[in-house]
Structures are given as C-alpha cells and as structure tokens.
Amino acid sequence: xxxxxxxxLFSILLLLAxxxxxxxxxxxxEVTGNWDYYSNTAWxxxxxxxxxxxxxxxxxxxxxxxxxxxxxxxxxxxYGHGWAVFDQDVEMNTRYIIYDVNKTKLIEVKFWFRGxxxxxxxxxxxxxxxxxxxxxxxxxxxxxxxxxxxxxxxPCHARVWIxxxxxxTDYLNVKVRIYDNNWNLIKGKDLKYNIGSSWFSDxxxxxxxxxxxxxxxxCSKTNESIITNELQSPSVVEAPTPPMTMIEAFAEFVxxxxxxxxxxxxxxxxxxxxxxxxxxGVAWQTVTFVFVVTSKFMPYIGIFYMIYLVIIxxxxxxxxxxxxxxxxxxxxxxxxxxxxxxxxxxVHAIWSFIKFW
Length: 357
Fold this sequence. Notes:
The chain is an alpha+beta fold. The protein contains 4 helices and 13 strands. It folds into 2 domains: 20-242, Jelly Rolls, CATH 2.60.120; 244-357, no CATH class. Strands 1, 2, 3, 4, 5, 6, 7, 8, 9, 10, 11, 12 and 13 form a 13-stranded antiparallel β-sheet that branches.
C-alpha cells in the first residue's frame, strides 16, 4: 500500500470515528449580570458590595439513550455583605436538572450557597443540597420527592452520580456524596426512582446558575462524564446518614402521609388535591421561613428576657411589693397555656383528617 493510500485510509477511519462517537456539548442559552469569568465548568461573580445585584447562567444539551451522568460540584469561596434578613447576604443556586423530552418526569440536584453576617458581625456561610423528583405531566404535588440537608463547610465539594440502574432498567439512581475542603467524606444520600424504560430514550440535561444579593461567589464543576447506550455500575463509597432534626422528622411524616392519601384517591379528586397540595406547600414554606428567622433571634431573646426580668425585680424593690412579679408570672402562664392549647388543636385536627381518609 502506498504512502498516499495509507494517509487516505487513516483520514477516512478518523472521520468515521469522529462521526460515530457520541459528542456531548453544553450549549449556552443565557448569561446576565456581572461575572469575573464564566463557563459551564467554572464561574465567579464580580464582587459587588454597594448594591443588590443578580447574575444568571443557563446551559443545556440533549442526549439519546441516556445511561450515566457524573460530575463534581465545588463551592470554592464566597462572601456576603451583611445580614440575610435584610437581603444584605449573597446567595447562589446551582441546579443540575435531567428530564425527558416529553417533560413527564424531572430530577434536580441543587446546591444553594448562602454567605452572610449575623448582625453584621459574625460570618455565616453554608451550603444546602436539595434532591428533587417531580412528575411534571400530569402534575400532582404529592408525587414530588424532596430531600434536603445542610453543609456547614465552605469550601466544600460534592460528587453526584445519576444513572440508569443496570439490574432494574426502569429505575434511575441518584447518589450524592458531600466532602469538606480536604475531601473527607461528610454526608451522603442514595435515592431510586421508578420512571419507566422509555424515559431514557431522549432526555435533556440542564445546568442553571443564579446569584443574587450583595457579595460574590465562586464555584466549579469538574470531572464530568456523560455516557449513553452502555449501562454503568459505579463504585460509590457508603456514607453515614446524619440524624434528622425534630422538624425534619415531622416534615417527613407529613409528606409521607400526604403522598399515601394522594395515591389512594380516584383520578377526579387528584387534581383537587393537587391544588390543595400547592396551598399546603406555600404554607409550609412560610412556616419554615418563620422558624428559620425565629431561630436566628432565639439566643438574643433569652438575654432580652433576663434584662426585662431584672427590671421587674427592681420594680418590686422600688414599690416594696411583689405584685409586678406576680402579674408577670400570670401573663407568662396564660401565654404558655394558650400555646399548648393551639398545638393540641393542630395535632387533633391533623389526626382527625388522617382518620377521615
């Protein structure tokens, strides 16, 4: 074979290899705001402390015969100007989303960074990881699976595996592992969703980044791998499951009961329940926000109360009477009794609702 023939044959084989090899490329769909630099693998917002600002990035791509998606999400640094209650903090949501082209079912892994200063003094930085599964069409609130946990380490890293189960091909596995800055394993979560074999044929991957507030954030995505056609069995280190707080356990119980109620209902009532679920969802978010704000004030409430109690005792000495203290104790007892009565009423109403269904 002549030298020219060999070159020609090599060129043809190279072109064929390029043609038949899967090529995955993120397409930038949107960019707004001010960035020091940005891409789908590394991004850092400009430091803007004087005014409240926003910045967004949006990438997507389509994949056929999806089987596997792996990436590492790294929260490298960030700084908030002031207190979160007054929108003086800085926040960034990074969403990794996968759904089918018919938009029937969606899975999202989100990393929410917040950097702030408590009362503009002590620095508070953390990341919340959320894993969400949702049936988009038809949409029912009770067919939503939601998992969330907080990471009090910045910088921190996460490894995420999203892949088709090799033994139960109707299932999608989602595994997340959280590490500190030295790559020591902290937390982890394994989830599994029955979404049907046809879902994997044509899917869309999205990466959405949104920053708002005063300050700056720096993140990156590394070691990404997307595979089609070939089923994978990744080796994932087992992670300890952190104990749930009381409010997390209660939320999990309410969510499970609501899902069971929804699944047992006939189709006409499901739409009605979906609307109620939406209202309950808004109400729950409101309660959660109030709880978070209250917990921020809680250490200072005790100090203010002690100061108030000292003032009452001084009044007793000044008036040579214990009446101010007795009146205060009566008011506190009445308030406590009303709170207990309200809690008992709520629990009774929930139990009556469950027994009714």
